[in-house]
Amino acid sequence: MLGQPSVAPAAFSRRRTGPSLGRGGMVAAAHPLTVATALDVLRRGGNAVDAAVAGGLTAAVVMPEMCGLGGDLFAIVHAPQHRHPMTVLGSGVAPRSATLEQMRRHGDASPTGVKMPFRGPLSVAVPGMVHAFGALLTRFGSRPLAELAEPAIGYAEGFPLTPIGAHFLATSEDLLRQYPSSAAVFLPGGEVPRAGSVLRQPELARTLRAIAAQGTQAFYRGDIAQRIAAFMAAHGGALSADDLARHETVLAPPISTTYRGHTVFQTGLPSQGMILLEALNIAERVDGAVLARGDAAAIHLLAEAIKLAYADRLGFALDPAFGDPHLETLLSKAWAETRFAAIDPERANPTVPAGEMAEGDTTYFCVADGQGMMVSLIQSVSSNFGSGVVAGDTGIVLNNRAGRGFSLEDGHPNIFAPGKKTVHTLNCFSVADASGRPVIVGGTPGGDGQPQWNLQTLVALIDGGLDVQAATEVPRWTVWPGTDPSTLPNPYELQVETRAGEAVLTGLEACGHTLRRFSPWGGGGAAQVIARDPETGVLAGGSDPRAEGMALGF
User: 263, 362, 422, 483: which one is catalytic?
Assistant: First the structure.
């Protein structure tokens, strides 16, 4: 039909005009309906957490491939009534009845040996997202869950698919057809829905109504939990009703470091937010004017810093309940000085080991209100459509976080164990000025790209002085692999968007980087950033044009 969306996502050829400005509230998200939902809550007097919960519930419906209800959630909240920010760590443990031997027996073959089952019922960890929504509202919210869930329920009854949403359904068709409960929802009539068609999820609407009426515990106890557990037991999964009933969200102070007079906060373990902070500490050894140039020398230094931080993540990070992750050492300036010394300013390091220790797919969005509350939030089912499994007649897409995260290698700090949380790719950041006032919240989806693209965004903002919209649009680069155990310890590949320019690309090759060129506006991610002027209260929102979202304020 004339004027309707195309099947394939549109390519973006130019930047957006600039940041969105406002004082009453601001939302930056990767889907327009998420933005509309959260902004409406702010306009009706809800605070930033209320808006984030409503927006997150809507995102779980309209972006099921990214962040369905069976996923996890991490957030940082700056609340004006509290002196210090707080993180919400909403990820769950591996099923307590599962065993390492079971995972090895049913694991996936790879060139480096058997790895975790990447998809299917055994890839599922306890979903933490819904419980985390409840924890956010209990601690910071001002509106009832029933009110905030109304838009998501309406969209579950039917919403128009965007081009990117239709694209993910098409590329995930084979996975969805493996599970009849998934195909029934996302391949109605046995066909892949087209962009502009209405996707209906009535079973998910029924589940959301139960959660709205009974509270988030309805997901973890009672009928919904029993139906999830019964489905998993009947289809070879290990997630049980007891696993769901015992789940708790962790509220804790964020981890942090300083960078050129600012304090940068991140989500702590099991999130891998430590990577961004260690990389910033290493990058701080370089003059900010050098990094702001964005040339081959700057990208080389930042890429080498990221390699070192990833190596230390792989070498030391684990669920703190199962051992010492050495975070105090890894985030120290002294450690960064030692690691910086390992960088050759003119030559890429093809392989990077962890430092020597002395003893001892996803959506992100941010919200700010007119009273000074700022929320940085990321939620995900891990890979596109997570495990690929919809839990029977609940309409809930279940994550594959255990399958994607854990190692099966003896001696690895992140080796699978029942009741253990895998180290998590989800992370988000916030920034405070020298007076401790929150001035930026931001993040991006993208698995192991997240810390790298967050680093690039912060360097653009702090060292480059760019506005929040321009910072989301800088030509993107990615070091690969990050933490994928099936590809390590192969030499690193540096993936760079061609908008960086031929001089930059050839300069990186001259440094010895194995280069892969991405098309303009390629390279992944969907960064969203909000900045707040603490003197005037003016909010500026930036939204990555690589996604379909936007930043809107009032």
Answer: 362
